[in-house]
User: Fold this.
Amino acid sequence: MVRPFGKKSFSVDERKSIVRGHELGAHPKILATQFSCSSSQIYRILKKNRDDNGVVHRQSPGRPRTTSRNMDRNILRACREDPRRTSTDIQLSVTSPNEPVPSRRTIRRRLQVAGLHGRRPVKKPLVSLKNRKARVEWAKQHLSWGPREWANHIWSDESKFNMFGTDGIQWIRRPIGSRYAPQYQCPTVKHGGGSVMVWGCFSDTSMGPLKRIVGTMDRYVYEDILENTMRPWARANLGRSWVFQQDNDPKHTSGHVANWFRRHRVNLLEWPSQSPDLNPIEHMWEELERRLKGVRASNANQKFAQLEAAWKSIPMTVVQTLLESMPRRCKAVIDAKGYPTKY
Assistant:
């Protein structure tokens, strides 16, 4: 139920009814329930009646409200039906010939009073109905899995790290009129200053290698990583019995790479598409970002050296915490009916 905005305004007849009801013995709290207002308003009306020896309807101070309560409800309804609607869109949808047109600022104020504030939306992958069903099914199958079941699983992924600047929005606090002062500028270079692409993996017992990807990552580059980076590490640390996880990127699922997995008899973990929130390595990339926050690199080689050193310094307690979150991740996907979750 949408609560009314502001205090309730009473007509002279309503005020007289309140006074008459009190004279007949009705308690102010009962009157407040009957007239859908607070008890304090009833007490003020009764006090006003005593002080002025009669009920007087005073005009409310300040400018009259542009919007009626019905329009306030329509504004909230329009926003809740589509949170992406702008104040201009809402203005067009709620305006009627019999009421004044509310300004966009008024609409924003009404929404803010109701607790609806403008924010940048979090970016999550678009998940189709088919993939939502697959995600829920996978989550149900693995909901009860614990450390024993996830033992000897290799989690893998690629990620890009910028050498200079950021792909996101940056904010800065500065005095008025100082927009172009050097200390308040965000220096940029062409193409964002370059970036370093890496591939990495880990298991429940050890951090795997971090491999730099030079040039375009295609099926042949990926096969080389599997053959000369992942497989030697896996056999040295996990023996011959392990399960490999990868997402459904086309280069991962190509026939060329599938033949490599068959030749080497690698067991693959079935993986639902569009499911980075189920993969704990995504949070490992965030951990790597945090460890290098504020650290600058003058070139790609230096950047990779920083990444590799930070990767090797991540303790296994971080890995254990991420793997312990798997039941919660599965439950979150089930509760969200396959839509992206907070993870």
Residues 12-52 form one domain. The radius of gyration is 31 Å.
